[in-house]
Amino acid sequence: MAAAARLFLRGAHTKLSISSVSTVPQRHFGPALLKLSPSCDPHTQTQCRHAAHFTFQPDLVPTQYGPTQKMNLFQSITSALDNTLSSDPTAVIFGEDVAFGGVFRCTVGLRDKYGKDRVFNTPLCEQGIVGFGIGVAVAGATAIAEIQFADYIYPAFDQIVNEAAKYRYRSGNLFDCGTLTIRAPWGCVGHGSLYHSQSPEAFFAHCPGIKVVVPRSPVQAKGLLLSCIADKNPCIFFEPKILYRAAVEQVPTEAFTIPLSQAEVVEEGSDVTLIAWGTQVHVMKEVAQMAQEKLGVSCEVIDLRTILPWDVETVCKSVVKTGRLLISHEAPITGGFAAEISSTVQEECFLNLEAPISRVCGYDTPFPHIFEPFYIPDKWKCFEGIKKMINY
Amino acid sequence: MAAVSTFSNMNKMYRACFHASRQAAALKASRLLNNRTFRVNSTHRQQPFDSTLEKPQFPGASAEFVDQLEFIEPNVIAGIPVYRVMDRQGNIINPSQDPQLSKETVLNFYHKMTLLNTMDRILYESQRQGRISFYMTNYGEEGTHIGSAAALEPNDMVFGQYREAGVLMYRGFSLDSFMAQCYANADDLGKGRQMPVHYGSRDLNFVTISSPLATQIPQAVGAAYAIKRENINRAVICYFGEGAASEGDAHAGFNFSATLECPLIFFCRNNGYAISTPTNEQYRGDGIAARGPGYGMLSIRVDGNDVFAVYNATKEARRRAVAENQPFLIEAMTYRIGHHSTSDDSSAYRSVDEVNYWDKQDHPISRLRHYMASRGWWSEDDERAWRKQSRQTVMEVFERAEKRLKPNPELLFTDVYEEMTPALTKQRESLFRHVQQYKEHYPLDLYDKDSH
């Protein structure tokens, strides 16, 4: 039945299929390279391309923000948006297909709860969505714009880079669009191919005036999204779409914030620093475990969380301690954000480095469809990177 | 189960499309009836689906079937008339259209149009002498600026392109502020960060100009939407040229404003040229006004050199935009008498005779002067005295601005973000250390020591 439903969805609407096929129940998969979704019939293995290259690892249940509820990542986004609409009467949420709940279900129920003038569809036009959002923010209201996939954000590039990012500066602080937040599903999803898989954060990291944030889990997503919405600068919030359903945690129901521009040391270690953001943090955590078990190497795992402006201090402090740095992201290696981290760390920690900084990233190709298992910087490639650094 | 719920979602989406088309049809009807009886908020109305009717049921259009193959001619909308109040000699053509403005108001119009003209001449010359880096004149378009600005309320928000200095002047932006911006001196409200003519004023609700064309159009729509939700008597006006109307952002803005029902006036200054590109290489339809119906938007074409026509059209569009929460498109036909900017020489692409015609025979300033003279409100002596006085005022302000120091270099780093980031703090300190070390190579004397 589930398989039939999926097939129907594929035929009906490509974008919708992404949301439903990316359903990866939270489960520990063990060490094999390719994993089948439990919903796949073992007899049709050759038909099922559903591979999970990571294992989502929930954090400890947060206790400091009040009562929690079990939520996956899209539900935690909905919860953050719900908190915002309820506390800020100027807040509006808009984008393609958001009115009925969004193709990834992040805005489910919000239109009915808060009204058609606050949660609404726009015409299918990304430059319009961002331009409109800037205007809403300039007029003093809170604008939460959704771009349906990060891969489709480029028509809005001019509005983001030339307009949103420069509004405050060019007006001498007379006008700003600091209440604008742009949300977009981001990153690989197992079958997203060229145009449903991209991680475009590096394009925006070259643009002073905006903030770029990527969460790794439902709790982080809610706290960081609420920070982006409250922040007085325009923010781009990239949501790892593979985690929408795969990642489940106990998430506080009330509003809470996690500070921007602060990286988090998610695992302490002494020999190698591993930096990632979004889904890749979970790959890194598994790699740290493998390095400990197979090599006896102790890894410190850092979730950068905010790509721009990024937390140089936490990263450098760690590298001073470990002397080795591996950075990993899904986006192509050339000109990726790992390059920026690498050159800053080289400047700041030159004498502390025991080995060349290692970047394990996507290849300089478009994001490939059927070759995704070979393209992504999976745990084996990262593991090999650590081995090389240790043996340098 | 998943399949069922998704199907129902898709069905909802199709229904939403269906409404958009119904709405467009309703708009057409409303124009005929000159009211909004037929206008229904799409999000509030569900058109019942009735498969028994022998008419097209496509969600994206509402019309009848035909059995003759016929393409719609592109000139279905063509020859949109140009609304005017005065003829070229300043005579009121139809008394019912006379806005009946007081002598004081009309004199104010004239003072602002000519002061703008004088300021343009002096700043244009100053660029030619190398005293400022760049300038753009407003010659020939003064009527579009003053006529539209006068029809608005002071708290209406303005999103401009870059050739609307008259709108800002009408709102009360001082000559000192204009000059400070063009000189990028320490009094520039924009803190010396932008090229000349990129004005902005929070107090006057005039959003700071940016160079990229048409980006302001969808932004104006967003601002109008936020203002609509405040439910107050306020509107947004968005200026752009006929060249900018070719940008994707223009399409985005038109379409969003109509579907999201925003109290907004799109004011297109069709001045004949986008730098050197003439209108016949810019579009094939009947100008910009012809696009309105395609978006389900009310539109009008006016004589932009007739300040009263511009005033009347903008006033009525503003009234209805606020009352009915819908956008209006005004295409003001005018002529850019000056070069595009100080970086342009228009003799390379248009004849002097053409320019002279507009300068000497169909100029918004002379038309208004004829009108004033016929009322006995303005004499040759008044003209001479005012020209002398306005020139002197502009020159005084100009000299003050030129002497003023440039803003403190510290302002290079502020306002990138609301707060200073660690990286920027570090870069600022590094610059200051460097400049201390290499003082003689940097023009520190020209810059203010205080940061305001």
From TrEMBL, chain A:
Principal subcellular localization: mitochondrion
GO biological process: branched-chain amino acid catabolic process; response to nutrient
Cofactor(s) listed in the protein's UniProt record: thiamine diphosphate
Enzyme class: oxidoreductase
Membrane-spanning intervals of the chain: none
CDD domains noted in UniProt: TPP_PYR_E1-PDHc-beta_like (cd07036)
InterPro entries associated with the record: THDP-binding, Transketo_C/PFOR_II, Transketolase-like_Pyr-bd, Transketolase_C
GO cellular component terms given for this protein: mitochondrial matrix
GO molecular function terms attached to this record: branched-chain 2-oxo acid dehydrogenase activity
UniProt keyword annotations, A-Z: Mitochondrion, Oxidoreductase, Transit peptide
Compartment(s) of residence: Mitochondrion matrix
Any single Pfam family the record assigns to this protein: Transket_pyr
Signal peptide: none
EC nos: 1.2.4.4
Domain Transketolase-like pyrimidine-binding: 71-246
Functional note: Together with BCKDHA forms the heterotetrameric E1 subunit of the mitochondrial branched-chain alpha-ketoacid dehydrogenase (BCKD) complex. The BCKD complex catalyzes the multi-step oxidative decarboxylation of alpha-ketoacids derived from the branched-chain amino-acids valine, leucine and isoleucine producing CO2 and acyl-CoA which is subsequently utilized to produce energy. The E1 subunit catalyzes the first step with the decarboxylation of the alpha-ketoacid forming an enzyme-product intermediate.
Subunit (UniProt): Heterotetramer of 2 alpha/BCKDHA and 2 beta chains/BCKDHB that forms the branched-chain alpha-keto acid decarboxylase (E1) component of the BCKD complex. The branched-chain alpha-ketoacid dehydrogenase is a large complex composed of three major building blocks E1, E2 and E3. It is organized around E2, a 24-meric cubic core composed of DBT, to which are associated 6 to 12 copies of E1, and approximately 6 copies of the dehydrogenase E3, a DLD dimer.
The name this protein goes by in its record: 2-oxoisovalerate dehydrogenase subunit beta, mitochondrial
Classification lineage: Eukaryota, Metazoa, Chordata, Craniata, Vertebrata
UniProtKB/TrEMBL annotation, chain B:
GO cellular component, one term: mitochondrial matrix
Keyword Mitochondrion: yes
Catalytic activity, reaction form: N(6)-[(R)-lipoyl]-L-lysyl-[protein] + 3-methyl-2-oxobutanoate + H(+) = N(6)-[(R)-S(8)-2-methylpropanoyldihydrolipoyl]-L-lysyl-[protein] + CO2
Keywords (A to Z) from UniProt: Metal-binding, Mitochondrion, Oxidoreductase, Potassium, Thiamine pyrophosphate, Transit peptide
Location of the Dehydrogenase E1 component domain: 111-410
Requisite cofactors: thiamine diphosphate
GO function terms (MF aspect): branched-chain 2-oxo acid dehydrogenase activity; metal ion binding
Family matches, as InterPro entries: Alpha-ketoacid_DH_E1_comp, DH_E1, THDP-binding
Top-level lineage group: Eukaryota
Enzyme class: oxidoreductase
Location in the cell: Mitochondrion matrix
GO biological process: branched-chain amino acid catabolic process
Protein EC: 1.2.4.4
Entries under Gene3D superfamilies matching the protein: 3.40.50.970
UniProt function note: The branched-chain alpha-keto dehydrogenase complex catalyzes the overall conversion of alpha-keto acids to acyl-CoA and CO(2). It contains multiple copies of three enzymatic components: branched-chain alpha-keto acid decarboxylase (E1), lipoamide acyltransferase (E2) and lipoamide dehydrogenase (E3).
PANTHER family: 2-OXOISOVALERATE DEHYDROGENASE SUBUNIT ALPHA, MITOCHONDRIAL
Quaternary structure note: Heterotetramer of 2 alpha/BCKDHA and 2 beta chains/BCKDHB that forms the branched-chain alpha-keto acid decarboxylase (E1) component of the BCKD complex. The branched-chain alpha-ketoacid dehydrogenase is a large complex composed of three major building blocks E1, E2 and E3. It is organized around E2, a 24-meric cubic core composed of DBT, to which are associated 6 to 12 copies of E1, and approximately 6 copies of the dehydrogenase E3, a DLD dimer. Interacts with PPM1K.
Family stated for the protein in its record: Belongs to the BCKDHA family.
Protein name (Swiss-Prot/TrEMBL): 2-oxoisovalerate dehydrogenase subunit alpha
